[in-house]
Amino acid sequence: MALRNSIGNTLATVVERQDWYDEPGFLRKREAMDIFSAKFDLSKEGKNVTVGRVIARQTFGFWTSLISGGYSIWSDNNHAAIKLAFPMAPTRWQYRSRAFEHLNTVRLFRNRVFHYEPIIDGLTLQNGSHISLSQIHANVIDAIGWMNTVFQSTIMAFDRFPTVYNNGAEAIEARIKWHLGIA
Predict the structure, then answer these.
(1) Which helix (H) or strand (E) holds 124?
(2) pLDDT, tens digit, for every residue of 67-85?
(3) Does residue 121 carry a pLDDT above 90?
(4) In angstroms, how far is CA 46 from the centroid of its own chain?
């Protein structure tokens, strides 16, 4: 949600229209098809096609793809849009390519989770580099903080990942069994 709002608001500001996705020639084919599908589905469901509804229908992959190469709005030579989308990002991350790499790693990890693939060992990227589960967690927390430090601090206040990760699967399994009364 934070990524969607941050990128969507930035694009609306830079393109100077709320329905920035309808700017002729702005979107690449895949992203344009995602927008078309959202509008089509809304119409089919008998709902008004509004900017908010179209934007809400887009996937995490859609938002990540918008900062991939090919969108000159995020040019590494013009940091204004990246700084607007990620105002609290450290300077070293205020480059389109670096922000994309960081967020794409989160997207790849999210996809593994949603496809019920093992995640305990982290993620191995196509280039062969490995990112641990704890580093992916840190990347997610960092990225949220780039956009909204209140979201970040709220998540961290209730974040049980470090405890769960450090105590191992056995402790989690024992707690679940105790909760279910089968211990």
Answers:
(1) strand 123-124
(2) 988 787 776 555 788 899 9
(3) no
(4) 29
Q: State how far the Cα of 12 lies from the Cα of 81, in Å rounded to an integer.
A: 11
SS3 120: coil
Q: Which amino acid is at 115?
A: H
Half-sphere exposure in the Cβ direction for 64 (13 Å, CA): 17
Q: Where are the domains of the chain?
A: 1-66, 87-183
CA angle 126, 129, 134 (to 5 degrees): 115
Match 């887009």 to its residue by tokens. 58
Exposure string of 17-51, with b = 16+ CB inside 10 Å and e = fewer, is ebebbeeeebbeeebeebbeebbeebeeeeeeeee
**pLDDT value for 62:** 95
* Separation of CA 101 from chain center: 11
